[in-house]
Amino acid sequence: MKTVSENRCFGGTQGVYSHQSEATGCDMTFGLFLPEEAEAGPVPLLWYLSGLTCTHENAMVKAGAQAWAAQQGIALVFPDTSPRGEGVADDGAYDLGQGAGFYVNATETPWAPHFQMWDYITGDLPRVLFNNFALDEERQAITGHSMGGHGALTIAMALPDRFRSASAFAPIANPTVSDWGRKQLGAYLGADEMTWRRHDATIQMHERGFDGPILIDQGADDQFLDKLMPEALAAAMMARRQPGQFRMQKGYDHSYFFVASFMEDHVSFHAEALYS
Amino acid sequence: MKTVSENRCFGGTQGVYSHQSEATGCDMTFGLFLPEEAEAGPVPLLWYLSGLTCTHENAMVKAGAQAWAAQQGIALVFPDTSPRGEGVADDGAYDLGQGAGFYVNATETPWAPHFQMWDYITGDLPRVLFNNFALDEERQAITGHSMGGHGALTIAMALPDRFRSASAFAPIANPTVSDWGRKQLGAYLGADEMTWRRHDATIQMHERGFDGPILIDQGADDQFLDKLMPEALAAAMMARRQPGQFRMQKGYDHSYFFVASFMEDHVSFHAEALYS
């Protein structure tokens, strides 16, 4: 693991690190905020998965999460959204290839060798984090924005013992029937739509749900509502009697200004689960 | 005035607007955060002047100021740092020309026709703001980072009735004797160093001071300490018995992570002056 940068931030440290990943077969970069409390011993960890086009950096500099994480003594990890590099396949569109890993393990050409983001987020990166930093593996929570909200919810439901709480900002809620989903799941996983189902938060909510509290925020003026499909996930949560809440926020769009506006609520929500 | 974008943000609106400026003779772009309270009537205004290489956008997305401004019901304006465009002179270096206006009125070739940032910040832009938005001209305060801290302090001292409070993050404190200053003041204002003196916060602190409270934060691990010269300004403040405080923050560098870490303190500091 290599240290790219470290900056003092809200009494803690905002670091950027890179490491060779077995899963993706390339160098991966991530941001990690450690609160001051990490100097004394392991602290809880909140995962933040980012959306289409983002690297590890966008949320790290634009979501304002460190202020609240520092207040709560929680670490934040900001993974990249795909493998990257010259030897890694890509596509001209913003919503496929580099910057658009969709948190799945690709089985199809040309994506398969590197686009293994599910294994990276659930296997490789946790190993690097818990081996190198003062982080408490028993106290993890997960959130994300847009494609990252999709990743956070599907991963949380698939690994029921790992995360105490899950939240999302404007998640891609029902990708198996959305323009943000059918294209990517088809490209990465192939034509058999049965393999897509574990990567659809609405389907997973119907089939298994999450064994902890869930918080979803969605902007009512989001320019991508037709692709995000919040109504499907909200209906699934209510049908399942899933503990949690789905909030429709008047006037907000899909931007980081929306994410930043409700970040304090999300960090407080996770803190309650992480410290209970 | 043209609306470039508007996003709901912390219950208010983060806007970006452009307008033709008489002072700079070109289109200028600025960011303006209006808290929810501006829907009911004029709110106080905090100016944030940015540093070298920045546009109106950097602090608007990276400083985390809207959270605290919304809490206090204060508007924030984020001006650009120079004139811009094809017809505007520039220099290959990051610290001269576009992105580096230094908040002065240039008298020298090739800068003079457009580089009139002092007049822009103190004349043109205030006119646009108070004519178009629910802002209370009687309740203004000013802050800034690095070159913007220099601008905030020198403008606040030159216009003693305009700002109730002034603060700065890692300001260029003594530019007439610094590598960040001598080059630019020479280029923009010419060889007569007497004309530079009103643009040096340390000299102005010695000669006139500020008729309100001042708050300065400086990172102790700032990579540009030799150019910023905080010791000169701190000595001048104490020699003058200037009400205020100069804080040296252990471990912090020159980045926006430093600015964001202390933004809550600065907004609270200004709120106290603006609401008293």
Automatic annotation (TrEMBL), chains A, B:
Known catalytic reactions: S-formylglutathione + H2O = formate + glutathione + H(+)
GO molecular function: S-formylglutathione hydrolase activity
Tree of life domain: Bacteria
Keywords, comma-separated and alphabetical: Hydrolase, Serine esterase
One protein family per Pfam: Esterase
UniProt enzyme class: hydrolase
InterPro entries: AB_hydrolase_fold (IPR029058), Esterase-like (IPR000801), S-formylglutathione_hydrol (IPR014186)
EC number(s) reported in the record: 3.1.2.12
Function: Serine hydrolase involved in the detoxification of formaldehyde.
PANTHER family cross-referenced by the UniProt entry: S-FORMYLGLUTATHIONE HYDROLASE
Protein name per the record: S-formylglutathione hydrolase
